[in-house]
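Protein in question reproduced for absentees:

***
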Amino acid sequence: IPASQSPETEMDYAYMFARTTAGLPSGKYEKNVTLYFNPAFTAFEFHLKSLDDEITLVDFTLESASSNLAGTLVAAITGKDDQATLDLENASITGGSKTAKITFPTDTKITKDAEQVFTIFALPQTLNDLTLKFNIEVNGNEETRTFPLKNASGPISFAPFKKHRINGLRMPGGMWRLDI
């Protein structure tokens, strides 16, 4: 899973795995082999609108305080057929990054009525310390806005091997500013 992603090529990172112990056919094309594919990623689909002003999206970063979101995962597949799973406890990650970033095409905007929907991919694991970081432009001013994914009970936990849909995000355009 790359640390730098593009909204146009999102399905390029939807890796799958499968394992079977079906024997090889005695002759060519004599027997079918059924493979049960499972996702080898964790994905987040965001639905984002503006609360009021038009906002230009520059880029978005998903950050974890403790886990690598991107990198190369090497893991054994245990079980077989529809019971196949990745052995994440004994997996190794190389080239790891605690961030995954999407850079939006120039002039990507959100308004009260026009949302942007985008998906970012991460390595398959339970994640519970995530922060959203948006670099935006509002009324000619560049800003960075962060939003930790937590509720009144604490950090929100996201299961591996799933696509999590986060709907209803509305970013305010204006911010209170005080210059002293």
Notes: The chain has a mean pLDDT of 90.
